[in-house]
Design goal:
Blueprint lengths: L1 E12 L2 E13 L4 E5 L6 H8 L7 E6 L2 E2 L5 H11 E5 L10 H10 L7 H11 L15 H13 L5 E5 L7 H16 L3 E6 L2 H4 L4 E6 L2 E7 L9
Parallel strand pairs: 3-8, 3-9, 6-7, 7-8
Antiparallel strand pairs: 1-2, 1-4, 4-5, 9-10
């Protein structure tokens, strides 16, 4: 499903070039649960942004479902995101003046959904335990509830891939466990899951851990065996 080959990403800071990714190569199979683990500044979020078609590499190739996306224009990338990818971010990114239901509906406004948006949002919120919170504003929800709203928003277009960037980072331990259960349930239903984290306990819940250091993959191993390289 995801094929990345010799991926480089360089940012320009004044006259200085900063190389964030340094020749990343990886494959993620359809239906797999993968964690990408590294300390801050190692390139994991930059890689996730490229996988999510939010950014483009400086060089290298990225094939998603057999389609080369590394040289797509912004409009094409936007369509690809809308059709295939759902995002869960550490900071939730909910609009403060919109209710939970309205926040969940947002991606449909920019897509080709022809059904009942309100009904779809309410169904999703109900499926993750927020049936009684659909008309609440973000400030009226706990951190864990806000993250559930963000998950419902990520699912509204029925994506085949969920990309989660430090999804438990702003949650207490109980809410974090509840969130990971939701992600596991989605994975059990066939969704490809990619979770970026610096938390080893979160990373170990995936089928495979991809470790990064200095913009490169330093280890790629199955969590079932806890040793050995996999591709």
């Amino acid at each position: 499903m995801i094929q990345v080959e010799s991926l480089f990403k360089t940012f320009q800071k004044g006259s200085l070039e900063v190389q964030i990714l340094r020749g990343v190569t990886l494959n993620i199979r359809k239906g797999e649960f993968v964690s990408i683990m590294a300390r801050s500044g190692m390139g994991k979020s930059t890689l996730l942004n490229i996988l999510g078609c939010l950014d483009k590499p400086t060089s290298g190739s990225y094939i998603l479902d057999g389609v080369p996306v590394h040289d797509m224009g912004d409009d094409e990338l936007s369509r690809m995101r809308n059709q295939k990818i759902g995002f869960v971010f550490q900071s939730f990114h909910l609009l403060p003046r919109m209710t939970a239901r309205e926040n969940v509906i947002l991606p449909l406004i920019y897509g080709d959904f022809n059904g009942d948006m309100k009904k779809r949002a309410i169904q999703l919120l109900g499926s993750i335990g927020l049936a009684d919170r659909v008309d609440h504003l973000p400030r009226e929800l706990s951190g864990g509830q806000q993250q559930r709203v963000a998950i419902a928003r990520a699912l509204i277009n029925s994506p085949s891939i969920i990309l989660a960037d430090e999804p438990t980072g702003n949650l207490d331990s109980t809410s974090g466990l509840e969130l990971m259960k939701i992600l596991h349930d989605l994975h059990d239903r066939g969704t490809t899951m990619v979770v970026v984290t610096h938390d080893k306990d979160v990373a170990l819940q995936a089928d495979r851990i991809i470790e990064m250091r200095d913009g490169q993959i330093s280890n790629n191993r199955s969590t079932w065996t806890q040793s050995g390289e996999v591709t």
